[in-house]
Specification:
The protein is an alpha/beta fold. It contains 7 helices and 10 strands. The chain is globular, with a radius of gyration of 17 Å. The structure holds adenosine-5'-diphosphate and magnesium ion.
Length: 221
Amino acid sequence: MIQLFNVTKSYEREQCALTDITLQIDKGEFVYLTGPSGAGKSTLLKLICCAERPSRGQILMDGRNITQLGDRAIPYLRRNLGIVFQDFKLLTRRTVFENVSFPLEVQGRRRMEVSKKVYQVLKQVGLEHRLSHYPLQLSGGEQQRVAVARALVVDPLVLLADEPTGNLDPDVTLDIMELFKGANARGTTIVMATHDRGLIWQYPRRVLTLEAGRLSGDQQP
Ligand SMILES: Nc1ncnc2c1ncn2[C@@H]1O[C@H](COP(=O)(O)OP(=O)(O)O)[C@@H](O)[C@H]1O
Ligand SMILES: [Mg+2]
């Protein structure tokens, strides 16, 4: 599903954020990306969603080389991706419904189809009664559930999550993990950056470890 071949990334005037990374993540896997702050976790996720380009090496997504994808092709790649961030990144002036429907609107889906799908996914995350609330009227955990709903509404092949539980209480963290587990059980490949060891212990999955931009570990549970 996701293949990296000798991928190196250096930002301008920086040392390498990632050095010579080669790895493969299969369809349907749930993989943690761990390592200390500054190790390159976010950079790796950004390369996979084409928010950044590798300085060297190749990245294949579903067999397709995305390394040299033109800017116009990126939205098509993103159609198959869901992305969740630590700080939610919701549109604060849009309602819950509008936030979650946004990716479908962008794809030009029909209105009826959009409403039905948004309601269905909000129900999945337990927020169907919050449709017309605004993000700031919700708790942190609820906001992250909205963000997860927005990521899942497109039925993504791959869900990328960058420390999605970093700002959440332990009980809310477990809610989010259950949602990821459900999506993974329905076939979505998940790559989640976290340095929460307890979480990895509680939900054991393959763990990729980065240290100073190098892949230092790849452990099956
Ligand atoms: N936009 C950027 N410009 C320059 N350097 C960056 C940028 N983003 C990240 N870095 C550097 O790349 C390295 C890896 O960062 P990052 O991928 O954010 O690590 P992590 O997510 O594991 O904390 C760090 O040294 C960081 O300072
Ligand atoms: Mg990071």
